[in-house]
Design goal:
224 residues, 8 helices, mainly alpha
Length: 224
Amino acid sequence: MPELFTFFGLVTHDKTFIYITHMVLSAGIALLLVKMAMSNLQVVPKGTQNLMEAYIGGVLKMGADVMGEEPARRYLPLVATIGLFVGIANLIGVIPGFEAPTGFLEMPLTLALVVFVYYNFEGIRRQGVVKYFKHFLGPVWWLYWLMFPIEIVSHFSRLVSLSFRLFGNVKGDDMFLMVILMLAPWLLPMIPFALLTFMAFLQAFIFMMLTYVYLGGAVAVEDH
């Protein structure tokens, strides 16, 4: 099967170059959207400001359902930034001639590491080292020796869950789109394009939701 065609691939077929250029492009589009939304703020939002406010409101509501409104507001900048970046990176891959940087394992794994380090840091900062890791022992004292390693493995498995879920789905979508374009390059891809666009938003939503879930579990240890 031939490689997926990209405009940046006309410069060089080096995978690192293609990945970095598409990642920078995704970040540039995200920054441009934010700049456009903030350039002329109005009481009654319209255009890009209206779009971004709707997005922020949706992310906040999602976080409030998971961990309550006050902590959701605290972590809104992180979650909304990751969601915007991942969403745009996913959507780029739907456009013929571009490849989603989330289809390279480096980007999902880096974002997963950021979330992993940050939620553990927040858990330790808010609960204290002893109280935070005591949660890993479980409620039954004579099972401490068993529960602690299980919890450690469970937390590290979240790196795999976050990164490989995003990477696998986006990579699969890219390969599916390539096959469709090879078999029927004109009218038939319109339906897959709509499906892949939905999947791009869905994967960004799942990543944000899991980030909120992990943060909520880390900062609310005393309730467990």
